[in-house]
Specification:
The structure is a single chain. The chain has 187 residues and is of the alpha/beta class. The protein contains four helices and eleven strands. The strands form two sheets. Strands 1, 3, 4, 5, 6, 7, 9, 10 and 11 form a nine-stranded mixed β-sheet that branches. Strand 3, helix 2 and strand 4 form a beta-alpha-beta unit.
Length: 187
């Protein structure tokens, strides 16, 4: 089993809500730009980053943007088959299956990003992998039916934002947000 470091990328509002009816409850262009930049950028142009997502997250991405370009897309699902996804998208039944798939591609992969939904975040955050969370804290209240698991500050340490992460507060469509980074270490 790989001890690869996972990167969770998520936006959550005041009540830690992340979605409603399979969609984001807000539209934050600057946050989407950050998401695209952080999940796409690599230091080695010969490598790509992986994005791991659940079926509902996959289906919530507008069809014209699927698969997420420039990244290796892995979708967790027990019901989708190769007929339901483009040929360059990988399917895995479990999070561990996805990680085994990543291990098999190790020489071509730079970083691993977990992009949703709640159960996939849960597997990444509470699994046995080192994990960094890039949390866009949406400073407002939104009605949500899907929530990010609690970030246990006994397990995750808030760190100074890496140079790739803006430290300022943003405002988009009247909604403010800033990015906070947490790290879970293993010896």
């Amino acid at each position: 089993m790989s001890k690869a470091k996972l990167n969770v990328v998520v936006a959550a509002c005041n009540n830690m809500g992340i979605g409603i009816n399979g969609k984001l409850p807000w539209r934050l262009k600057q946050d989407m730009a950050f998401f695209k930049k952080i999940t796409s950028s690599t230091n080695d142009p010969e490598r790509k980053n992986v994005v791991i997502m659940g079926k509902n997250t996959w289906l919530s991405i507008p069809a014209k943007f699927r698969p997420l370009s420039g990244r290796v897309n892995i979708v967790l699902s027990t019901t989708l088959t190769e007929v339901h996804v483009p040929k360059d998208v990988y399917l895995a039944k479990t999070f561990e299956d996805a990680m085994n798939l990543v291990d098999s591609m190790e020489s071509t992969i730079e970083e691993i990003f977990v992009i949703g939904g709640a159960s996939v975040y849960n597997a990444a955050m509470f699994g046995s992998y080192p994990c960094r969370i890039y949390l866009s804290r949406v400073l407002d209240d939104f009605k949500c039916d899907t929530f990010l698991p609690e970030i246990d500050e006994k397990v995750f340490t808030k760190i100074t934002n890496p140079s790739s992460v803006p430290v300022n507060e943003f405002e988009d469509n009247g909604t403010k947000f800033h990015i906070v980074v947490y790290e879970k270490y293993f010896n």
